[in-house]
Amino acid sequence: MIQNTFAQHDMPESITINEGSGFFHIKGGIGHENDTITVFYHKPKDFTSKSKVLMVIPGAGRNGDDYRDSWIEASERHSVLILSPSYGEKNYSYADYHLGGLIKDLDMRKGVTFKKNSNQVTVDEDIVKFIPNSDSGQWIYHDFDRIFMIAKRAVKSNQRKYDMFGHSAGGQILHRFAIFYPDSNANRILASNAGSYTLPDATTAIPFGVKNTEINDKSLKKSFKKHLVLFLGELDNADENGGILLRSKTADKQGTHRLARGTYFYKKSIETAEMSKTKFNWKLKIIAGVGHNQRKMAKAAAIYLYEDY
């Protein structure tokens, strides 16, 4: 399991977060020391040391600036500091980003087909091999606490925890983050419209389950205590053509569209928690009238987090 620590030398000498929108750079984690993560931010006008902090994880486009922009209005209204890390595709592959580094040596040059005039990509699991990466130091999840601490120091925040919202690929990252990094400083974690899921199921191989990983009943008890919300669009269903949807023999057991997969993941997680007789803090929230649209989901998430929660 990942430990909630990082070396002091990982902290930059200084960064500046000014009022309004901007960005700063930090270096990547282990295995990405020569790579750069660009963190787009928005600091509201009435920011104080008591203001909440929200980290927004982008989808497959890695467009942290656009995702940050979707939260500017809410940032100003609720005095929330927005941080949106952008991982470049050149240095962070599908395995590094979508799968958080949980898989190593992933070769998708063969065994992957794109269905014409659709958003579907089919993976032949007999050809594409998903090999677990047991070196947790190479997973991207520890970057999030590090970014929070760097920003916290820069703005002199007294917050001890931060909220999270991730859409599409960001939703994939965040539900896995809750499972594989339960000791994080993240508080409320909204995983929105993920395309595929890693079930807390020891009989299903990674990346669709936790077989052949260090996840066990003890660690899952920690994960189930996290405030994870499956934040799903009602219309992100079989009629939705936005984004990219992975199809495979195992993935399709979760459902053939994102709404079905999200609700299946939630149901199976409840069953697992009940079997182990552990506390279950995860929630399911379905947003009426919204499909695979990060801006509309962000607007609903802002209301959920800072008005209704």
Tell me what the structure shows:
It is a single chain. With 309 residues, the chain is α/β, with parallel strands linked by helices. The chain has one domain (14-308): Alpha/Beta hydrolase fold, catalytic domain (Rossmann fold, 3-Layer(aba) Sandwich), CATH 3.40.50.1820. The chain has helices at residues 64-69, 72-78, 142-155, 169-180, 217-225, 258-275, 294-308, and strands at 20-27, 36-43, 52-57, 80-87, 103-104, 112-114, 120-123, 131-132, 162-167, 186-192, 227-233, 245-247, 283-287. Strands 1-2-4-3-9-10-11-13 form an 8-stranded mixed sheet, sandwiched between helices. A hairpin with an 8-residue loop joins β1 (20-27) and β2 (36-43). The radius of gyration is 18 Å and the shape is globular. The two termini are 30 Å apart.
Name the descriptors.
single chain; 309 residues; alpha/beta; Rossmann fold; 8-stranded mixed β-sheet; 3-stranded mixed β-sheet; 7 helices; 26% helix; disordered N terminus
